[in-house]
Amino acid sequence: MLFPKMLRIKQKFPAPVVSDIPGTVKQELARINLPSRIRPGDSVALTAGSRGIANIATVMKATAEFLLDMGAKPFIIPAMGSHGGGTAEGQLDVLRHYGITEQTMGVPLRATMEVVQIGETPDHIPVFLDKYASEADHIGVINRIKPHTDFNGEIESGLFKMMAIGLGKHHGAIHYHKANIEYGYYHVILTVGREVLKQAPVAFGLGILENGYDETAKIVAVLPEEMEAVEKALQAEAKRLLARLPFEFAHLLIVDEMGKNISGTGMDTNVIGRIMNLTEKPPEKPRIIRIYVRDLTPETYGNATGVGLADFVSQRLAEKIDRKPTYINCLTGVSPESARIPMILETDREALEAALSTVGMVKPEESKILWIKNTLVLGELEVSEAYLEEVQAREDLEIVREPTALEFDQSGNLLPRFA
Fold first, then answer.
1. Distances in Å between the alpha carbon of 66 and those of 61, 137, 281, 384?
2. pLDDT at residue number 283
3. What domains lie within the chain, and their CATH numbers?
4. What pTM did the predictor assign?
5. What are phi and psi of 23, to 5 degrees?
6. Across-strand partners of 74?
7. Which residues pair with 201 in a beta bridge?
8. Closest Cα partner for 165 from 47, 278, 276?
9. C-alpha to C-alpha distance for 339 and 356, rounded to whole angstroms
């Protein structure tokens, strides 16, 4: 089969960036006059999630340092639902990979899967809280605010989701995901978050936004009584900053890697235009006919949640799947379909041939192909020659390398194009 030549392009995104992350964190916490709420000697539980948030270790350390300087006693808890295999040890291991340890943070890490019920929503959904967080004098909720991969709403993935799924641990996540089928994701996260704010000692939130280049774009501290309104505003801003593919149609999308550190669904559904959800509509665009995923990230520890979004995967990806954390994650999310295994191909060449034989009447060498490292890194990507005319006509796209043929090694696998 003949394949099209591929050219390297760069996308131009709005790119606000925080130059001094520790300084900004401390400035924001001072702005909301945190010392008026947290006294010397008070314990403060800080939430650390499982997402691959840029500079998260720096943000966590700066927050802990600010509290220590106040005379408080901060500690960090893994707040990540069922991730890390649904065990305390597994969740600490996830944080360790992000550089969040007692040695690097200078404060204790306390992990448990035990929760306590602190109330219930108006729909009688029980609300749960991490046991260590429930015993603290205060809770600091820290998370990136971004579009969710399963639903649309004024609040999606951010501080409210951290209070629900993160602080609810595996037990809470199971209840909330089941409730999603009855009431919808947005309603459940909003009402559970409101109950946490009412019943738990939340002292502040710290919302992080990222630009299209996976860089820290904004850090905002917020008091609990303002959290809902502020998160709605930040969510709208996050949607404007979200990196997307430069085209609304492709015959084939090649993805080098997927994983939980990339997205809760392995690949960001807002980028690929596909979801697996019983209650929510899929995105209207982009329209991608076939998706081929080449590998899992090391940071996902074999968790292949979302692999069912692909049409084809490589043999090396399939061999890295750890069914236990994958199944735990998908069952907790009430989405067993997310663990479906696509067609497995021995080599990249075989996968491309299989994919391009199922995209319609277009000749393979004339097909529209996009090739990305992962759905977080979209600043530069490879596109086939069929896009050349459109690339040349657009001011937001720049050609970095002229078209060259795809190169394969002796085994039939693509030679790397991304660092």
1. 9, 16, 43, 49
2. 81
3. 6-13+244-404 (no CATH), 32-241 (3.40.50.11440)
4. 0.83
5. -65, -40
6. 44
7. none
8. 47
9. 24
CA atoms of 331 and 178, how far apart (whole Å): 10
Tens-digit pLDDT profile for residues 359-390? 999 999 999 999 999 999 999 999 999 999 99
Instruction: Return the pLDDT at 14.
Output: 83
**Strands 6-11 vs 380-384: parallel, antiparallel or unpaired:** antiparallel
| Residue 49 backbone phi and psi in degrees, to 5 | -95, -175
Give the whole-angstrom CA distance, residue 154 versus residue 271: 19
Q: For residue 407, report the phi and psi dihedrals to the nearest 5 degrees.
A: -115, 135
Q: Shortest CA distance to 163 belongs to which of 176, 178, 182? A: 176
pLDDT, tens digit, 9 for 90 and up, residues 330-350: 998 888 999 999 999 999 999
268: closest CA among 183, 170, 157, 155? 157
Residue type, 190: L
Name the pairing type of β-strands 202-210 and 287-293.
Answer: unpaired
Q: Which long-range contacts (CB under 8 A, 24 or more apart) does 353-359 make?
A: 353/1, 354/312, 355/252, 355/290, 355/292, 355/311, 355/312, 356/1, 356/3, 356/251, 356/252, 356/290, 357/1, 358/289, 358/290, 358/311, 359/251, 359/252, 359/289, 359/290
Q: Above 90 in pLDDT, residue 214?
A: no
| Residue 371 structure tokens | 């090739």
How many angstroms separate the most distant Cα atoms in the chain? 70
For residue 382, the one-letter residue type is E
CA distances from 412 to 347, 348, 382, 408 (A): 6, 6, 19, 5
Give one DSSP letter per residue of 99-119, joined into a string. Answer: T-SHHHHSS-B-----EEEEE
Q: Are 353 and 328 in contact (CB under 8 A)?
A: no
- Look at residues 281, 225, 275 and name the one whose alpha carbon lies nearest to residue 375: 275
